[in-house]
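User: I'll paste a sequence; please echo it back and then give the predicted structure.

Assistant: Echoing your sequence first, then the prediction.
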Amino acid sequence: MKSFISSLLCLKGKIFNDESVFTWAEFYYYSSLIFESSDEQQVSHVACSSAIELLVLATDILDDLTDEDNQGEILSKLTYPQAVSLSSILLMESFHIIGKYKSPHSLQAVVRQLRAAAYGQADDLSFKISHNHIPTEQEYFKHIDRKSSSLTRLVFHLNAPVEEIPLWNEIATYIGYSGQIGNDARDVFDDTKNDLRDKKATLPLIKAIEASQAKDGGWLLNQLISSDLGINHDELMTIREYIKRTGAIKYCEILAEIYLNKSIQLLKRYQETSVYKEGCSNLIAFLGDDDN
């Protein structure tokens, strides 16, 4: 079991993959140093970093199960029963570690945010494009605030003082927006993802449909509704190229960068009066600010 979990943690975006730019363990670790960086706290920081990595791996497994991403890196290695069992084990292990090193209040904060993310994931099943309803950009952000930003808020809630929670919620929300928008833009071209086949209302698809309705009377929506993209690969490639030509992908890339920069600017402002300036610098650098 341990060796198999280790192999999953070598996948794209995971802690043991040398090419990973962002990992949840590192995100938690650098975030924790903003609030306490003493040698005595190092064991707790490292342990909880591992807990967060395992927790997010569990949610990734559940996300892939929900989306039926059978060709993805995770489900291509697991049967459905194995995936369900493993996600349960990972969740329980992460709770156990957090409970060992953090207060009951902190563990409750984790559960609150995971609960929000779980309801967001359930909503994701019906958050789709149809002739009857095309979700707006505003609806998209409300959706990902619950589904995705709950996890980034969770990281800060484990360490932030109660009186600072509103600030860290804002920073975490921007980081969550940036990550989800970027993922949605990349997943348009990922053959292991079912976003287009399932007509999921991701921001690049919403913006591309808006452009199509303004330009050619809604060609994209008609093609999406009338085509089985799970079978017709040529049609899938045509739609991908069309989405790219509308500028929707570029729009999402720019917007993801804007939200990331918003979070970094808030961190820099916080750093001005923080006791742990080096910790702030490390997190800012980790998030991608080369000028820090």
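The chain is about 70% helix and 0% strand. The chain has a mean pLDDT of 94.
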